[in-house]
Amino acid sequence: MAHGRSSITLQTDLPGLLPWQVFFLSLVFGVMAVRYPVAALVAWFCLGAVDHLLRYGRFFSGRWWACLLLALLSGFVVGTLSLPAPAPPVPEWMEQRRMVTLSGVVDQVVTRPEHKLKIVLEDIACIVPQGERETLAGKLVWTWQYPGHRPEPGQRVRLHVRPRPVRGFRNAGVWDYAWYWRLRGVYWQAWTRGKRNAPQWGPAPQNVSWAVREKVGMTVRTAVPETQGGALVHALLTGDRSQLSTKTVRAMRRAGLSHTLALSGLHVGFMALMGVGLAFMGGWVWPDIYLHVPRPRLAVLLAAPLVFFYVWLGQPSASLLRAGIMFGFWGALLWAGRGRVLLDGLFAALAVLVLFDPTSVFDLSMQMSGVAVAGIAVLFPLSLHMLPSGHGLFSRVFRWAGALLCISVCANLALLPLLSWNFGMVALNPLLNLVWIPLLGCAVMPLGVLGTLCSLVFGWTLPLVFSARIADGMLKMLYYAGDSGFSPLVAVLRPLWPEILGFALLMLGMLIAVRRAGHRSLPVMGVAGLVLLVGPHWQVAMHDAQDRASLTMLDVGQGQAVLVSLPGGRRYLVDGGGTASRTFDIGEAVVGPFLSGGRAPRLEGVLLSHSDYDHSQGLCHILEYFDVNVLYANRPLPSGSTGQRMQAAVSRAGLVARGLYAGGRIELGNGYSFECFNPVGDSVSASVNDRSQVVRLECEGRGLALLCGDVESPVLERLARGTNDLRCSVLVVPHHGSRGSLAPAFYDVVGARYAVCSCGYLNRYGFPAKDVVRALQRRGTALWTTADCGMIRVTWPRGNAGNMNMWFEAGAGVK
């Protein structure tokens, strides 16, 4: 019996899970338990409990729980066996930063913005300085900016580089770069720029598919104008994002449109939409065709070649391949006349993907794809009753626009915990999707695909030019929206895993309540969800209520960022780290996510010791998106793009940079304070390093830690000769341990029990200098570096400042 749209009721809108789908989720949690054991076990128990309540009510089924447990254990075993081995030991010549002649075979080539290629090499061999040939286990990722050649998978290369282990920023609760590459069997990395290091290429393996794909990509690249709109069309059609600028990528990220740039299910949906359009056109030209093939099946048939062509053209893209597999299952279910096409097709595709690669459950893009589609499948039917009915043109347009907006809202609502946890940033204006996505799907992509096919067959490239011009107009609109504040991006609290699980339980309970089913399970789900959602906040509040202070030195590579935490949850950030990269923002990627982990993005104050980019660049993001009460920064402020960005952020936040000079004191409350010893007045004769703020964290007059910025030996010797009390238990080593800041007399006056140093792993400067290390050791001061230990945290209980606790992210233990 056919039903019209108006017959849809809330009682039938919420799909349930089939038994095999529950078992599959249990297996997924088992795999995830390899990395997150406690979170995965609690999530599995919640899944089993909710499913049991809905399926059996109060009747306990031991057999059902046994099956779920078996699936969980199977997933854990499969995940353990599938996980690549840990990174092998680092060779001695690599620790010495020696240049070697490296050879390898290209396994994968991935484009990145700003003319970069990431080339994964396998079968790695090195000619070490002693002339011996040494093989490296696993793979190497080679980042090549401004490449002079686009290699082909299977091609051998030989180049002169300085390889090093894959090493991320090791901070608690943030993105683990090394884990990401370990899942891909990559343990080493190297960088080159332009034609330097003279890579020598072996013969290409003559892969016909690759050659044709490269020809198509080159055809598109030469046909589109050399504008960012042309670069966007080229990226959307071929997956090559190397021509995109940092400005374009950041504008799309700020508007919450980054998902439209990464080839994924959205773009496969555009291909399917073209198939629907062709099916309508076919019915208009030959109405009798619907008597032979119903329109939904005809749309699947016509879309399939387009989807296959697009998935093939966009390789290598794991997300695009996943979307193609999902389309295949959805098309098969639709062709078979099955219901629940979206949800069942999603589970079938995910099952195939996990069966092929169990560790793919850790892939963020796969998690986001699955959660977004599941959110649409579950939430969108509930929104249908809100859309207008009627057959007029206005009603149809409004219904179509409303449906598009509802789909976007449903997907983003489901993704909200995942986006918040991984990025700590959320775009607040979904209306941009209402304009951007239809233009992409109805103009840019159809014209681009048409132009690509026509250019290959007839040499006609005009549709590609039109597509690029439309994309240029869209980017101008996006830039204007960003400059006018219409695309707000806000920092949010990054939820802890119990909060994510609590959110999911409460959302599920609300959906069940709307459906008016399973009422007996609602109180249990509500209480459990509320406890999981609120519990972590109570834990954080109890932690903040303890009468103690802590200093956390973040691992920001060759930079410095120090967080001082005081009773009551008051936090002060001293410097924010920074890199010389135009595309990587350490404030957005490392410092901001750490600060917002389980806490609101708020700071009592920010101190900028001096203007060098390795201390200041990361603060731009903090000042832009965090709630900061006060900023202490002396002249000169940073210059260049960092300075412009910081000045704009300070103006928007209504802050005024306050000077902090020798003799100044910042009262932090509850007996804590910062006392400043340098610089002496607003002198411009000293170097930028020697104008660094030197501040001591004190508790009721007793020194806890001394932070020295990048001051060098003359200033340190002057401080040692002075009358100020510099004594403290922890010394933040000046200038990352540079020999230019060696000051034995200063170490004697400070008398620190521990010294902590922020420096990059295998940094080119050799920090900390051996002379500095020896001088500290001779005075009985234990030295810890972020290069060795990752993030370092020192805690002082009140009233017993000499009894410190030290904690290291990289597993050095508690000292």
Describe the structure.
The chain is of the alpha+beta class. Helices cover 48% and strands 17% of the residues. The chain has 26 helices and 24 strands. Strands 1, 2, 3, 4, 5, 6, 7 and 8 form an 8-stranded mixed sheet that branches. It has a 7-stranded mixed sheet with strand order 15-14-13-12-11-23-24, with helices on one face. α6 (208-223) runs antiparallel to α7 (228-238) and α14 packs antiparallel against α15 (393-423). It is globular. The termini are far apart.
CATH class of the largest domain: Alpha Beta
Gyration radius over CA: 29 Å
Number of helices: 26
Could you estimate the helical fraction of the residues in percent?
Answer: 40-55%
- Overall 3D form: globular
In CATH, the homologous superfamily of the largest domain goes by the name Ribonuclease Z/Hydroxyacylglutathione hydrolase-like
Attribute tags:
815 residues, alpha+beta, OB fold (Dihydrolipoamide Acetyltransferase, E2P), 4 domains, eight-stranded mixed β-sheet, 26 helices, 48% helix, transmembrane helix, ComEC_N, DNA internalization-related competence protein ComEC/Rec2
